[in-house]
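Researcher: We plan to redesign the surface later, but first we want a full-length starting point. Tokens attached.
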């Protein structure tokens, strides 16, 4: 993996995963991979996130593991040190853009307006996260900006469901979507890897 653009082609759905117990990281990643989804975004919303990234990188080599909710320069540095293979932010500041770029990792900067997208594009980024997708106008919004910003492609995340995902994936400027539904909190807590694998198979099938 060398570019952010390639991240958008790995899977139609990128699982956005919140882990409260580091011991769940590897089983969840393996279940997703068994279902055909070999990418995982572990959010930096819990104290175990960095260790979870390190474990998945070491024990599930077939899966690309990234860090999400990167909101400060130190997050980019810590994530890279933990072994993250890509970074995702909910929004952007110059300091976060600089720190993420300095890691050399593929990076999806988050935007929610045309001005933000244009500003990030000026910095050389062509693959972006659109967040929060549903709250920011969803499918209609992304369709409307495809004309004036044809060079940009997006991974919309936030409020997307299995029902709405195909509508996003049908847009010319969307490469994939981010979703939390592949790893429901109750299934993760219960160690229900069969459910996670089944949800991953359904998500992988959206590529067709």
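Model: Full-length starting sequence:
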């Amino acid at each position: 993996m060398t570019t952010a653009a390639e991240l958008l082609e790995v899977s139609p759905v990128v699982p956005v995963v919140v882990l409260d117990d580091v011991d769940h990281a590897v089983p969840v990643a393996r279940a997703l991979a068994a279902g055909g989804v070999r990418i995982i975004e572990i959010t930096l919303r819990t104290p175990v996130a960095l260790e979870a990234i390190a474990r998945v990188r070491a024990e599930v080599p077939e899966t690309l593991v990234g860090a999400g909710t990167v909101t400060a320069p130190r997050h980019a540095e810590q994530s890279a040190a933990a072994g993250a293979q890509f970074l995702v932010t909910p929004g952007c500041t110059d300091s976060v853009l600089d720190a993420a770029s300095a890691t050399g990792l593929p990076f999806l900067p988050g935007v929610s307006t045309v001005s933000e997208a244009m500003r990030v594009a000026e910095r050389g980024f062509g693959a972006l996260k659109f967040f929060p997708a549903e709250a920011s106008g969803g499918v209609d919004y992304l369709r409307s900006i495809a004309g004036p910003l044809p060079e940009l492609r997006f991974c919309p995340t936030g409020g997307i469901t299995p029902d709405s995902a195909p509508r996003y994936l049908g847009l010319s400027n969307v490469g994939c979507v981010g979703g939390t539904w592949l790893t429901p909190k109750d299934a993760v807590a219960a160690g229900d890897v069969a459910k996670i694998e089944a949800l991953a198979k359904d998500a992988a099938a959206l590529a067709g």
